[in-house]
Specification:
4 domains; Hect, E3 ligase catalytic domain fold; Rossmann fold; mainly alpha; elongated; binds zinc ion; three-stranded mixed sheet
């Protein structure tokens, strides 16, 4: 917008014109039907002979209907004012020939503006529905001889495969980025790898041979670097991390910080920094509401023992290595069909937007939830054979991932009046997830 104003002022300068008014309609997508106070003011200025030249960025930006154009032409004829545009120079409307031209151009540009975005979108949509990739090809892949069908780049693919592995193991994205930089790898855009750069890359569905069509993941017509399930598992790991954790180096991560909640108030407890006197506790950070705290060491030890014991149980491999529920696909298909029907009703004007929106939102939420269920967390097999050893070997994020998988809630109760941090096992209140507690 500012750019357009500058361009118009440059035209005025070139023509030796003095600028008396600068009118801007924010809603210049001139076809939306909203009122345009700037345009109305312009007509007023012309009508009252306060201006004799109009400078516009493009002729099609001035009018939004043939009717308006005709009125405008009439007004120019009556007042003798002229029009200059940044894009098309002097907009001559003085002869029948030029007026015809203006009318045709107006009609064409109007049709263009209305259609261009939907046509581009439709083309993209069609390409994607056919499984073709649109947009920049992610690192680790390269363009093949078939447009829209990128392929594995043998040079960089192993790096990205390792990145996805590390993400799934719960490694911090900052750490992954730092390692790449240290090893001298340079991303396609920018000079160094960053937390965000790594996140953006590993989130690209192309890596799993998938495409996002209409907000949903569908198999692409090309192969990714890893299986769709592998990519989904990495996304699920990312999604389950609490906000902020992804940026924190793992050394500072406590076992239960942000996971543990107060049984009474539901607020989450965070681990202290460890260098203060009270640093060895988990405590609620909600002054005035909840001040529960609990000794970290004792609780961590007990939780570790509980998890190791659970992993040792005979049924653990079955319970924690869930097979993908195939009925989920049917449910997803059903939800999508309902959503499409709703969207059709909306498009055909048979359903008011106000009543469709909350229902569409609810369906979208349900679809998203099912999507995440379709990507179950995998616990490596070694955990069931040698749980203690494996637990010790795991990084803190990996342990936290297992805790989130195993429990719906880990809560701690206030004790007595003093709410002191000393830990007694009775304070712990565990809610096993799904079938884990059986
Ligand atoms: Zn509380």
């Amino acid at each position: 917008m500012e750019r357009q104003e500058q361009d118009c002022r440059a035209v005025a300068l070139q023509g030796g014109l003095q600028v008396s008014h600068c009118l801007v309609d924010n809603d210049i997508s001139a076809y939306s039907g909203r009122r345009r106070p700037g345009y109305l003011r312009l007509l007023e200025l012309l009508r009252t002979h306060q201006v004799d030249t109009v400078i516009a960025w493009a002729p099609e930006r001035l009018h939004r209907s043939p009717r308006e154009l005709e009125d405008f032409i009439e007004l120019l004829e009556r007042t003798g004012a002229s029009v200059r545009t940044v894009k098309s120079g002097v907009w001559d409307l003085s002869t029948p020939h030029h007026r015809l031209l203006a009318r045709m151009l107006g009609a064409v540009s109007r049709a263009e503006s209305e259609n261009i975005s939907s046509r581009v979108q439709r083309a993209h949509q069609q390409a994607k529905s056919a499984g073709f990739w649109r947009g920049p090809i992610p690192y680790g892949m390269r363009a093949s001889t078939n447009p829209g069908l990128p392929e594995r780049d043998p040079q960089t693919a192993p790096l990205v495969e390792e990145m996805l592995n590390r993400v799934q193991r719960g490694d911090a994205l900052t750490r992954i980025a730092a390692d790449l930089n240290k090893a001298g790898y340079v991303p396609r855009r920018g000079r160094v790898w960053t937390h965000t750069g790594v996140l953006r890359l590993v989130s690209s569905p192309a890596l799993g041979g998938l495409l996002q069509v209409d907000g949903e993941l569908q198999p692409a017509a090309f192969k990714g670097l890893v299986s769709a399930e592998g990519w989904r598992a990495a996304q699920a790991t990312l999604a389950r991390r609490p906000k902020g954790e992804v940026r924190r180096p793992r050394e500072q991560l406590t076992l239960l910080g942000g996971i543990l909640v107060c049984a009474q108030h539901g607020v989450s407890l965070v681990g202290g920094s460890g260098d203060r006197k009270d640093g060895r506790t988990y405590s609620a950070q909600s002054p005035g509401l909840c001040c529960v705290s609990v000794a970290r060491g004792a609780l961590d030890k007990l939780m570790s023992e509980i998890v190791i014991a659970r992993l040792s149980a005979a049924d653990a491999a079955v319970v924690f290595q869930p097979a993908v529920d195939l009925t989920l696909d049917d449910q997803l298909r059903d939800l999508r069909r309902r959503r499409d029907e709703l969207a059709d009703l909306l498009t055909d004007g048979l359903l008011p937007a106000a009543s469709a929106r909350p229902r569409l939102q609810a369906l979208a939420d349900a679809i998203q939830e099912l999507e995440s269920k379709r990507s179950p967390v995998m616990i490596e097999a070694a955990a069931f054979d040698r749980p203690h050893e494996t637990w010790l070997r795991w990084s803190q994020p990996q342990r936290r991932e297992v805790l989130r998988l195993m429990f719906d809630q880990i809560a701690v109760q206030h004790v007595g009046a003093r709410n002191g941090p000393s830990f007694r096992p009775e304070r712990l209140q565990l809610t096993w997830s799904g079938t884990a507690g059986n």
